[in-house]
């Protein structure tokens, strides 16, 4: 591909515009399903778009006194750029496994860390005690899910014969069937589902934001455009991370009509699973989350690894 | 004159160092100028040697000094660090100029000696000289802590030197030579394994790998920022890993078993050291534990035994020296201006020291392995090396997990550092302070810039120029990660954000007071950041490890001291200063000798 093609991929499809729109739609699904579960009607499908446009175009952007402005305003933009890069790489490679490079799985895993880091640094920069506390929880949460996440990631890598190209993992699944179908793959899929629940900051792992105690945590001082960019980052990640799971466990996206429909159905199923977990669990304390991930989830991940070693 | 550059590169800085010590402190301008010129000349000389390599210097008919691909690039790195840190020291050093700059120059010369030595005994001499220089540089601080830390470093490094002498002796027994280019021993007997690990232990102690790490955090805490950046952060890493690479690739033919030991040491070092870093309250001690933890990655890379892993390990050695010395330099700047290294008393410095903050953020992200900085590329290569070695070893998941989880923990502790020192609310201890002078921030920003350049252009500048020639074989990455493209795309995104803030929408930016639930923000207690991970510390293994570390249970020095005390304290008790007691002992001794002679 040439540079303009990369730019188009990054900015429009399947990068920023596509991922953001799809992510905001996913946000609507989330709100609608939640509302139905709570016996409410829920918002219309365009509600999230209106929310973002209102923040972007009409609302003031407030900056706390005495903070480093460049960091406070720059971090959201960097986070969104990194999130978009993740979704671009993952979506393109899912559709066209031949593109991509050796070790891109690791690159994606590390790029996925940038949005939370920018959120933390932005929160730190806002010189607000509640933001600092929330950001520190975000960091602890990251520590807790990262370990089982890596262990879960090792299962597809191992089952596909020690490859670290996302394209190779997808190609292997097209030949030999989905990783998810095997016992170890199923368990590690479940482990990763729990990890991305935390990665996306969904209840029960939303203690960094914790509206009722920290009033949004790192988001507390953010308003207007900066807040809109953070919300867009979240929307893009809501697309990118499940897409990464689909690539790892469910064979990516086949570029035929029914292949795309199947991929969308898979995405909606993952999303629904997350929404159901979200709506049936109360928020846990941060130390409970750490214990949960380093305890039972680690055990599950280890079991799936051992099963994978045994070839199951 | 340039016909024999190698001995000049070794001896000239040492001679210049003696000259500096002789000059009285009053002539500090002269000393600074002289040191600057010598280090710059050394940098130029090592670049010359690098281009002319392979270079030899014969004494009789044996090559005593030798520059090849590996030693050539390490010499450039060493002299570049010496140069940058000399520039930095112009602004940071406040007293005993002659001795400080003299020791810096002599350290440079001795390091060159270690790097270029082709004779094990020559290397050993310079290696010991370096330990003495470290001791002297740390002791320039004139505090009790510095004296203790210097002594600890000297004893641990000196003790492992003794082990290395034993290893060299074994090599001599087996090969009848000290010339490093003549030695190529397969690891096939207990004798060869012993010789190999004796030298590896010395390299571990110098680089600061566990269990020989305990001198490093103490030295980092009590030495000045520039000394910590110069020796433990950059030179000791470069030399320690250089020796490890030399013995593992050239002197010995390693086996899967010996690699397994390296991998285990690497993985344990990464995770344990970074967990200790997580709870530190001192800016520099925290960095010191990271200096230990990062060694683990290099050892993992070299221990993976795959070409890409080894290249990654060597690249990580270079990268780590860059960002770690940058971080130590920022600590020196903060100490100079804020007067303390206690993270509880710092905070909100970003506004006052923007250059220091920028350098610290970049180096923090680089050490955490965040793309597109240099630390990411080398870690990514090491991970690939580990996964490539997977088919031969089932433990690869353990090494991979240790490395990747260690890097998450690294992010965590640097988030804490950034918050406690530079962000959050300003601490009441901090008055209005200003940025340090250009001689201090230019080296920091230069190192930060190198972090970016080596990250983005890794596959066009440092890897083909320095690293890959030093590794035998071509690593197996056909595709490279498109760091340039990714960076451009991220920058495009950030620029779009800027345009959005600047030109979009109907309302601008407004400055307001902090909102903390409607309360007056200054009335509420400040969050410092040092307490961030206390909740984890209370519940888990991390806490237990940290308690064991603070009790000194991982400290070989303490353990050794206990063992020595076990024997010496009873003997000490006998020396009670009472004459009859001594007479009784003399008498008993005479009786014993008499009996011995009688019954023989």
Describe the secondary structure blueprint for this structure.
The complex is a heterodimer of chains A (312) and B (600).
Chain A: H1 3-11, H2 16-37, H3 47-58, E1 61-64, H4 69-95, H5 104-111, H6 114-125, H7 129-159, H8 166-176, H9 183-199, H10 211-214, H11 224-249, H12 257-280, H13 286-309
Chain B: H1 5-22, H2 28-52, E1 55-59, E2 62-67, H3 69-92, H4 97-116, H5 120-139, H6 144-175, E3 185-186, H7 190-207, H8 215-222, H9 225-251, E4 252-253, H10 256-278, H11 283-304, H12 307-338, H13 354-367, H14 374-388, H15 396-421, H16 438-456, H17 462-470, H18 483-503, E5 509-512, H19 534-539, H20 541-550, H21 556-574, H22 579-599
Parallel strand pairs in B: 3-4
Antiparallel strand pairs in B: 1-2
Helix pairs in contact in B: 1-2, 1-4, 2-3, 2-4, 3-4, 3-9, 3-12, 3-16, 3-17, 4-5, 4-9, 5-6, 6-7, 6-8, 7-9, 8-9, 8-11, 9-11, 9-12, 10-11, 10-15, 11-12, 11-14, 11-15, 12-13, 12-14, 12-16, 13-15, 13-16, 14-15, 14-16
Record keyword descriptors for this entry:
heterodimer, A: 312 residues, mainly alpha, 13 helices, B: 600 residues, two-stranded parallel ribbon, 22 helices, 72% helix
Would you give an account of this structure?
The complex is a heterodimer of chains A (312) and B (600). Chain A has 312 residues and is mostly helical. Chain A has 13 helices and one strand, in the order H-H-H-E-H-H-H-H-H-H-H-H-H-H. In chain A, helix 2 crosses helix 11 (224-249) and helix 9 runs antiparallel to helix 13. Chain B has 22 helices and five strands. In chain B, the strands form two sheets. Chain B has a two-stranded antiparallel ribbon. In chain B, strands 3-4 form a two-stranded parallel sheet. In chain B, strand 1 (55-59) and strand 2 (62-67) form a beta hairpin. Chain B is globular. In chain B, 55% of the residues are buried. The mean pLDDT of chain B is 85. Classes of the chains: A mainly alpha (312), B mainly alpha (600). The interface between A and B is large, with 84 and 83 residues.
């Amino acid at each position: 591909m040439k540079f303009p093609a990369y730019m188009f991929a990054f900015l429009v499809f399947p990068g920023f515009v596509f991922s953001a729109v799809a992510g905001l739609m996913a946000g609507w699904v989330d709100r609608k399903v939640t509302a139905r579960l709570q016996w409410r009607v829920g918002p219309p499908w365009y509600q999230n778009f209106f929310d973002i446009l209102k923040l972007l175009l009409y609302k003031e952007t407030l900056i706390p006194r005495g903070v480093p402005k460049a960091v406070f305003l720059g971090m959201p933009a960097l986070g969104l750029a990194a999130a978009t890069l993740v979704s671009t790489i993952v979506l393109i490679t899912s559709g066209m496994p031949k593109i991509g490079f050796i070790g891109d799985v690791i690159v994606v895993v590390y790029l996925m860390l940038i949005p939370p880091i920018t959120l933390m640094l932005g929160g730190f920069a806002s010189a607000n005690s509640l933001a600092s506390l929330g950001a520190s929880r975000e960091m602890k949460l990251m520590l807790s899910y990262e370990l089982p996440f890596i262990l879960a990631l090792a299962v597809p890598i191992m089952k596909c014969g020690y490859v670290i190209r996302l394209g190779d993992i997808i190609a292997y699944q097209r030949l030999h069937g989905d990783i998810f179908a095997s016992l170890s793959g199923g368990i590690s899929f479940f482990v990763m589902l729990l990890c991305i629940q935390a990665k996306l900051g969904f209840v029960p792992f939303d203690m960094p934001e914790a509206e009722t105690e920290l009033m949004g945590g790192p988001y507390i001082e953010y308003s207007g455009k900066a807040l809109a960019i953070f919300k867009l980052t979240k929307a893009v990640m809501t697309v990118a991370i499940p897409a990464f799971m689909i690539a790892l466990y469910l064979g990516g996206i086949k570029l035929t009509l029914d292949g795309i429909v199947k991929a969308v159905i898979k995405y909606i199923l993952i999303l629904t699973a997350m929404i159901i977990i979200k709506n049936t669990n109360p928020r846990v304390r941060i130390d409970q989350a750490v214990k949960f991930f380093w305890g039972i989830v680690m055990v599950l991940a280890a079991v799936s690894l051992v099963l994978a070693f045994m070839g199951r | 004159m340039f016909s024999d550059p190698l001995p000049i590169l070794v001896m000239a800085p040492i001679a210049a160092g003696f000259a500096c010590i002789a000059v009285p402190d009053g002539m500090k301008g002269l000393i600074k100028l002289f040191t600057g010129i010598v280090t710059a000349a050394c940098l130029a000389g090592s670049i010359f040697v690098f281009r002319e390599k392979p270079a030899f210097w014969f004494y009789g008919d044996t090559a005593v000094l030798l520059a090849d691909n590996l030693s050539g690039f390490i010499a450039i790195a060493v002299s570049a660090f010496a140069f940058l840190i000399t520039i930095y020291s112009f602004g940071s050093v406040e007293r005993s100029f002659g001795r400080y700059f003299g020791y810096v120059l002599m350290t440079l010369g001795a390091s060159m000696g270690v790097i270029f030595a082709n004779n094990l005994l020559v290397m050993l001499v310079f290696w010991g000289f370096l330990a003495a220089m470290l001791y002297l540089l740390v002791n320039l601080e004139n505090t009790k802590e510095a004296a203790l830390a210097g002594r600890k470093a000297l004893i641990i490094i000196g003790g492992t030197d003794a082990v290395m002498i034993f290893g060299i002796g074994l090599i001599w027994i087996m090969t009848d030579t000290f010339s490093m280019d003549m030695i190529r021993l397969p690891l096939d007997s207990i004798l060869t394994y012993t010789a190999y690990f004796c030298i590896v232990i010395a390299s571990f102690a110098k680089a600061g790998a566990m269990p020989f790490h305990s001198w490093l955090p103490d030295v980092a805490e009590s030495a000045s920022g520039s000394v910590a950046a110069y020796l433990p952060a950059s030179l000791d890493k470069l030399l320690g890993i250089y020796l490890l690479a030399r013995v593992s690739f050239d002197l010995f033919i390693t086996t899967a078993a010996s690699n397994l030991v390296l991998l285990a040491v690497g993985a344990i070092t990464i995770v344990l050291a970074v967990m200790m870093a997580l709870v530190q309250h001192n800016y520099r001690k925290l960095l010191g534990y990271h200096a230990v933890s990062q060694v683990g990655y290099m050892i993992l890379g070299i221990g993976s035994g795959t070409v890409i892993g080894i290249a990654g390990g060597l690249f990580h050695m270079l990268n780590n020296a860059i960002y770690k010395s940058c971080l130590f330099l920022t600590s020196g700047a903060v100490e100079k201006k804020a007067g303390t290294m206690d993270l509880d008393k710092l905070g909100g410095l970003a506004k006052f020291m923007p250059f220091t903050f920028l350098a610290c953020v970049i180096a923090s992200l680089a050490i955490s392995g965040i793309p597109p900085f240099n630390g990411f590329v080398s870690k990514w290569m090491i991970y690939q090396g580990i996964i490539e070695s997977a088919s031969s070893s089932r433990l690869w998941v353990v090494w991979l997990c240790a490395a990747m989880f260690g890097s998450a923990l690294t992010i965590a502790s640097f988030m804490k550092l950034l918050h406690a020192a530079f962000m959050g609310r300003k601490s009441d201890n901090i008055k209005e302070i200003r940025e340090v002078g250009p001689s201090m921030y230019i080296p920091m920003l230069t190192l930060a810039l190198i972090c970016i350049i080596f990250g983005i252009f890794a596959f066009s500048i440092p890897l083909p120029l320095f690293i890959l020639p030093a590794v035998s074989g071509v690593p197996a990455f056909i595709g490279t990660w498109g760091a340039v493209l990714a960076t451009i795309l991220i920058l495009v995104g950030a620029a779009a954000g800027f345009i959005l803030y600047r030109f979009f929408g109907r309302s601008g930016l407004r400055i307001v007071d902090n909102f903390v639930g409607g309360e007056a923000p200054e009335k509420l207690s400040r969050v410092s950041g040092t307490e961030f991970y206390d909740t984890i510390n209370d519940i888990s293994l991390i806490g237990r490890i940290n308690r064991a570390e603070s009790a000194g249970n991982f400290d070989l020095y303490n353990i050794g001291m206990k063992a020595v005390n076990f024997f010496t304290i009873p003997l000490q008790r006998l020396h009670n200063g009472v004459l009859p007691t001594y007479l009784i002992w003399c008498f008993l001794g005479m009786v014993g000798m008499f009996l011995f002679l009688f019954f023989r």
